[in-house]
Amino acid sequence: MSLALAEHKKEDRDQQVPAIIAALGPKSIVLIGLMGAGKTAVGKRLAAKLDLPFVDADKEIEEAAGQSITEIFAEHGEAYFRQGERKVIARLLEAGPQVLATGGGAYMIEETRATIRQRGISIWLRAELPVLLHRVRKRNHRPLLIGRDNEQVMRNLMAERYPIYAEADITVESRDVPHEFIVADTAEALIRWLECEAKAAGAKGRGKGE
Ligand code: S3P
Fold first, then answer.
1. In CA terms, which of 62, 113, 130, 143 is 20 to 30 Å from 82?
2. Coil, helix or strand at residue 40
3. Which of 68, 91, 90 is nearest to 81 (CA)?
4. Is the CB of 58 inside a 6 Å radius of any atom of ligand 1?
5. What is the pLDDT of residues 136-163, one digit of tens each?
6. How far, in Å, is the centroid of ligand 1 from the Cα of 158?
7. What is the pLDDT of residue 209?
8. C-alpha to C-alpha distance for 44 and 8, rounded to whole angstroms
């Protein structure tokens, strides 16, 4: 690639940030996807790139409960955790713009999906089983996986959740590459989506004016 073209590409990328921020308004960028999809790692880097606050819903749930997620599951059960998760995400989405990483089960709750639709732009970090398994096996802190056949659990969750995750505004393929690549893909997908939305809104406005 010639230097001029490389420079041009870099300029395009630099222009992305103000364009994304302007088009985003008060909406949050909400990352969804299975355990191991890279929501936190990508979310943190995306927030830094866009100079937006990064918020991790699971961390906020732990702070609100004064317990780790593993302790909440063990002491109170999954239903109690889901209740807290729903409330905390509703509260977090009152603020914006921000990058919000949600736990893998959050988007499965109808009410949470509706709030995300209203106040955010959802991005599904989609990953294939081997990528997910490789990542979740590195740490052993997830209550849905502890003491279970990780591969079977993840297969079941993919079957159950992927059709719902597919309702997200944007899908980005999370691969086994440095996180920066996925951040770049996400920013590009976001800008394309925001442009389409702006065009659709413009066409609607013109239609009304006729
Ligand atoms: C869960 C995913 C976890 C955490 C909890 C339940 C799930 O978050 O919210 O253990 O139901 O998939 P991550 O997706 O960030 O690991």
1. 130
2. helix
3. 68
4. yes
5. 999 888 999 999 999 999 999 999 999 9
6. 13
7. 62
8. 27
Ligand 1 pocket member 135 (CB < 6 A): no
Closest atom of ligand 1 to CA, residue 85 = 9
- The residue whose C-alpha atom lies closest to atom 15 belonging to ligand 1 is 103
Q: How far is the CA of 16 from the centre of ligand 1 (A)?
A: 31
Torsion of CA 71, 75, 76, 81, to 10 degrees: 10
Global pTM value: 0.92
38 CB under 6 A from ligand 1?
Answer: no
Contacts made by residues 10-13, CB under 8 angstroms, sequence distance 24+: 13/184, 13/187
Residue 173 has pLDDT above 80, yes or no: yes
Torsion of CA 160, 72, 143, 48, to 10 degrees: 80
Q: From ligand 1's centre to the CA of 123, what distance in Å?
A: 16
pLDDT band at 11 (very low <50, low <70, confident <90, very high): low
**Ligand 1 in reach of 43 Cβ (< 6 A):** no
Q: Does the CB atom of residue 32 touch ligand 1 within 6 A?
A: no
Residue 147 sits at the vertex; the CA angle it makes with 144 and 150, to the nearest 5 degrees, is 60
- What is the Cα–Cα distance from 85 to 131, expressed in whole angstroms? 26
